[in-house]
From TrEMBL:
<dbReference type="Pfam" id="PF03798">
    <property type="entry name" value="TRAM_LAG1_CLN8"/>
</dbReference>
<feature type="transmembrane region" description="Helical">
    <location>
        <begin position="6"/>
        <end position="23"/>
    </location>
</feature>
<dbReference type="GO" id="GO:0016020">
    <property type="term" value="C:membrane"/>
</dbReference>
<feature type="transmembrane region" description="Helical">
    <location>
        <begin position="117"/>
        <end position="133"/>
    </location>
</feature>
<keyword id="KW-0812">Transmembrane</keyword>
<protein>
    <recommendedName>
        <fullName>TLC domain-containing protein</fullName>
    </recommendedName>
</protein>
<dbReference type="GO" id="GO:0055088">
    <property type="term" value="P:lipid homeostasis"/>
</dbReference>
<feature type="transmembrane region" description="Helical">
    <location>
        <begin position="174"/>
        <end position="196"/>
    </location>
</feature>
<dbReference type="GO" id="GO:0005783">
    <property type="term" value="C:endoplasmic reticulum"/>
</dbReference>
<dbReference type="InterPro" id="IPR006634">
    <property type="entry name" value="TLC-dom"/>
</dbReference>
<feature type="domain" description="TLC">
    <location>
        <begin position="44"/>
        <end position="246"/>
    </location>
</feature>
<feature type="transmembrane region" description="Helical">
    <location>
        <begin position="54"/>
        <end position="72"/>
    </location>
</feature>
<feature type="transmembrane region" description="Helical">
    <location>
        <begin position="92"/>
        <end position="110"/>
    </location>
</feature>
<keyword id="KW-0472">Membrane</keyword>
<dbReference type="InterPro" id="IPR050846">
    <property type="entry name" value="TLCD"/>
</dbReference>
<keyword id="KW-1133">Transmembrane helix</keyword>
């Protein structure tokens, strides 16, 4: 194993243990000091709270790193199939450690945070990332998928508001809901034409045929699988956002009507 591969392996292992430490130690310690509501949660809710706290931290770190690569890594942007994968491998290594850590927690605390869709999502991502880390192929596409992480903090914040008892019609909840729907759409749905157009232009080229059959199947199948789930989640988020906005308008209208009556 070459020194750089050893470094990526070390990063993945360190990432795994870091996220385990954040889940078991850091999140509970910080949460009890930041939010009084954390102490009133049930055991299952505290497990999910810690899981989502770690998820938010991972999303911010990896998402910002991903954005930096997309903006400044010319080698990857000019050659999306075989461009220099150094920075992408580091970012994917961090995510790989997180995904394995999260899978372990999902299975161990299945009654609290078990979700078959998350298991499928994690396994599909790990399958694709195996080829990125092992063979350095498709760095642009691997990194591009990580843009989706920018929607995670708002999704988690929605759950935090819910367990803390914030009314769905409250201003913080409505603001976060609208932001969540907008960001989710931008980084998971609106970017699909860009992603698949790059895939289309690469398809059939010499660089494409240098990718192994396993790498091609991992790239395409995982992309389709993840995007089908993204569309399903977008549908649920849009419906939820619409209901909250509608209830907020109705409540405002009733308040105004009562004010006129008085």
């Amino acid at each position: 194993m070459d020194p750089f591969s050893q470094l990526i392996l070390a990063i993945s292992v360190a990432s795994f243990f870091t996220f385990q430490w954040l889940f078991h130690s850091v999140s509970p310690w910080v949460s009890t000091r930041v939010s009084d509501g954390f102490l009133r949660l049930s055991h299952k809710q505290r497990i999910e709270w810690n899981s989502r706290t770690v998820s938010t931290f991972h999303a911010l770190v990896v998402g910002l790193f991903c954005l930096y690569i997309l903006l400044f890594d010319d080698a990857v942007n000019e050659d999306p199939v075989w461009g220099d994968p150094t920075l992408v491998k580091i970012n994917v290594g961090i995510t790989t450690g997180y995904l394995i850590s999260d899978l372990l927690l999902i299975f161990y605390y299945w009654k609290a945070i078990g979700d078959k869709f998350f298991v499928i999502h994690h396994l599909a991502a790990l399958y694709a990332y195996y080829y990125v880390l092992g063979q350095g192929m498709l760095p642009y596409f691997a990194n591009f998928r990580l843009l989706a992480e920018f929607s995670t903090p708002c999704v988690n914040q929605r759950w935090f508001f819910e367990v803390l008892g914030y009314p769905k019609s409250s201003k913080p909840n409505i603001a976060n809901g609208v932001m969540m729907a907008a960001i989710f759409f931008l980084v998971r749905i609106a970017v699909m034409p860009v992603y698949y157009s790059r895939m289309y232009f690469v398809y059939g080229t010499e660089a494409f045929y240098r990718v192994s059959w396993g790498g091609r199947s991992a790239w395409m199948l995982s992309s389709f699988c993840l995007d089908i789930m993204n569309i399903m989640w977008m549908h649920k988020i849009a419906r939820g956002c619409y209901k909250v906005l509608r209830s907020g308008r109705q409540r405002k209208a009733v308040t105004q009507e009562n004010g006129k009556t008085e």
